[in-house]
Structure formats: C-alpha cells, structure tokens
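Q: What does the assembly look like in three dimensions?
Context provided by user:
Components: two
Sequences:
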Amino acid sequence: MKSSVITFPGSNCDRDMDIALKKFGFKNKMVWHADAELPKSDLVVLPGGFSYGDYLRCGSMASKSKIMQSVINFANSGGMVMGICNGFQILVETGLVPGVLLRNKYLQFICKNVFVKINNKQNKYFKNVNNEVLEFHIAHNEGNYFCTQDQLKEIEDNDQIAINYCDENGKIEDQFNPNGSTKNIAGVFNKEKNVLGMMPHPERMIDKSLSGEDGSLFFKNLINNLK
Amino acid sequence: MKISVIITLKKDVLDPQGKVIHQTLDGMGFKDVNEVRQGKYFEIDTKETDNDKAKAKVEEMCKKLLANLVIENYKIIDLK
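A: Here is the predicted structure of the complete assembly.
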C-alpha cells in the first residue's frame, strides 16, 4: 500500500505520520506543498501542524496550495484522503468535508488524551475495528467543530459523523466535550466516506512505551481495509 | 485604488474572543456594553482603476479566501 504525506510550511506532525504509516506497512512518500503532482497513492494524509502560521484562518492558505488541486481531484475520484488536526482544518477550507473549526470554546490550547466513540464503521477507516471507543491524543487551539443547522441535518442524515468525544465507556456528554464542538463531533467524513477529517492524532498513539496503542489498532486496521 | 473589507462572524456563530473582551470591558467599568463581536479588517491596494471592476474582484477574493462563508459575512466598505 502506498501513501503520501503532504508537508506544508508549518506542518509539524508530518514526520510522526510518516513513521506511523511505515510502521504498519505503508510505503510512504513525503510530498512538498508546492509540487503539482501527487505520486501514485492509496492514501493521502494532510498532517497536523500550523500551516502558514495559522494566518487568516487555520488551514485557509494551505487549502490553496498547488498540491491541493491534485488532492481535491484525487478525493473527488474516490481516493482516500485523511486530514488530522491542521489537516482537518485544511480539508474544511477546501470544502471536501463540511463545517468549520472555530477557536476552542474556553480559549485554551488543549493538549491531552481523549476518548472518542466511533459513530460509523461502514467505511474503510473504521471497518473491522473491534473497539467502540478509542483513546487518541488532541493538541489544538481551533478544534471547535461548527456547522450550519442545514449542514448538521445533512451530515446526520448521511451518517457523516465519524467520531464523537466521549468518556472511556463511550458516553457522549457535554462534560466530555473538550472544545465546544457541536454534538461532540471530533471527526467527519465527506458524503462518500473516502475523505476523513478529525482533530485527534492517531499517529501519537502507536507506541506502548510512549503513549497508548489505539493508534496502532487504527493504522493496522486501515492498511488491511485498503488491501 | 484602495479597498477596505470588513469580515464579521455570522450572528449565530459563537465568538469566545468577543465574549472575553466583553467581560474584560465590563471589569474595567464599561457596564453599558450589551455584546462584543470581533472581526477582521483588510486594506487591499489594487492596480485596478475602475470602481466596479475592483469591487467585483475584491468580492471574488472574499468568497474564495478572505471569508469563510459558513461562519463569516464580508462587507466591502470603502473605495478610494
């Protein structure tokens, strides 16, 4: 399986993602934002970080990068595109996934482990994951998911909510919502479920001695689903 | 030609920064404030000399980059 990680000026989780993808069997290539062509890929990842210093709105500048036209075409032709954290912010700015990510409700940068409940397993990202709840890491200032009432109805009707913030037992309540996201939403799909944007970082949970292993579970499962 | 643009958050979008500014103003003794909403201001200096054309271009810039229309409104306020 071949993957590509896009590096924008200010990306800082690109190498973590590279390590994670390789660890679980992907042949990964790093792709510079100013390139026009994507290498042949089964998965494209927009990594976390602070692309373009978060100027204007997080992800807004990166969404207009040269490489992004190829990424958008790839996604629109059914290619798997995953945006993590700043990558999620870039995805919403391209319009590939609905909504926006606002400043966290309590104006704090949040850096901690959270639990997320998988809302939809009918897709290549979460199919065959045995767990209902995963422990991932979040580190963001703008992760407060917001969408219009019409968009919310649409994403609910189309089952586009991927994961919600919850407690370790999968209870989705306001007190387990770290950033004020609408309906505790931590990740959403496009309509076709080949594009996933999520705030949590699975690539930070791939080593038992450093963190948890739910990221390992996620990547192992993902590569199997793509085979 | 110089054109100014103001970007504001739509009415029902939460503005935590505006809220904190409001609270701070309140703490400073400005008790009459009902609400504060924070926005963005741009000055764009363009080579275009025709008013209508310049305005149309800036409108396009607003739609494509300067504003995110899910949460923000834009207003072109000044041409000179």
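Follow-up: Chain B has one domain: 2-79.
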